[in-house]
Amino acid sequence: MTRKTRWILGTLMAAVTATLLVLAFQRPIATALLEQMVHKYVGLNIIPDLPDGLHLALCGTGSPFPDPTRAGPCSAIIAGERLFIIDTGEGSARNLGYMGIPAAKIEAIFLTHFHSDHIDGIGPFLLQRWGVGTFQTPTPVYGPIGVEQVVDGFRAAYVLDFGYRVAHHTPKIMPPGGSGGKGMPFTLPPTGQGDQVVVLDDKGLKVTAFRVDHAPIDPAVGYRFDYKGRSIVITGDTKKTPSVQALAKGVDILVHEALQPTLVKILETEFANKNQNNMSQVMRDILNYHTTPEEAAAQAAVAGAKELVLNHIVPPLPLRFAYPAFLGDAAKFYDKTITVGEDGMLFSLPANSTTIDRKRLY
């Protein structure tokens, strides 16, 4: 037997032995690994470790399309140590936990409009905030007129669940008064008469809602957050509109929805080829109330935004290799940083500075 053959046989025997040992001790090994994971992630809270300033965490950058890489639309804004959620797309509450941002810290939720993909994940947010935070009052949910109807509807859907949890865990652990949410409607001025309203101005944080154009969905709004010299604008769903340019003037980060018509056309054609004519028509319809990456870039340039982050990505982009096709000619309209948003991204804007720091939270 040659030396090489002996080496190969020895290596195989070592591998087999190691495999048998792992299988023999699989239960204690797995238990130890799970203990390490639990120790690392239970109670994880990144907020106290962030510098004072304004922070943007992307908890959902997708759309109604199935997308294994993106939850429904959701952004988390951290101002100092205060946490706010903008839109609550399906799966985004789970992402918030992955990022180490505890739902128990949510001070309020802001909804841009009431399309299903922007509200269908609100139940888990309300439940997690209540169950972990033991709040005595419902979660405030801000939005344009109609938000109270949406929030009351979710409360009605969850009322049996709330009762089960109080009965099981006792009112001390799950205070009945803290379940569900409370709609906090605001009224925008008539079209052409300002199109904006300050909905929160407290402890150095100013939140301004402004009308966007997502017709026939009305009302639909975006939000601007200002805190200690830093600013973030989140458009919600809209086609290109002057109100975004106005409210995003000089903003540090403009978070803008984006749809690439060239790629949506591929879906339209495929649906038609397979006689799914309803969906083919939907693909045509959605083109007239969203913004292309090129238009979003032009908006950012006119506004003088320092960075553009695209979210509500349409169609799904399972591979980063597809990003150039999605962006199209956006770089021709905006010569600063354009980021295709991904779930788990964090952008930090330290107070009274000009820097924008970026990292992945998972």
Helix fraction, binned, reads 25-40%
- CATH architectural arrangement of the largest domain: 4-Layer Sandwich
Strand runs, count: 15
Instruction: Label the structural class.
Output: alpha/beta
Strand order of the largest sheet: 6-5-4-3-2-1-14-15
Rg result: 24 Å
Beta-strand percent range: 25-35%
Taking the sheet with the most strands, its summary is:
8 strands, mixed
Give the helices and strands as they follow along the chain.
HHEEEHEHHEHEEEEEHEHHHEHEEE
- CATH H-level name of the largest domain... which superfamily? Ribonuclease Z/Hydroxyacylglutathione hydrolase-like
Number of domains: 2
The averaged pLDDT comes out at 93
The 3D shape can be described as globular
Q: Could you name the CATH class of the largest domain?
A: Alpha Beta
Number of helices: 11
Reported by name, the CATH topology of the largest domain is: Metallo-beta-lactamase, Chain A
Which parts are unreliable, with pLDDT below 50 for 5 consecutive residues or more? none
Separation, N- and C-terminal Cα atoms: 50 Å
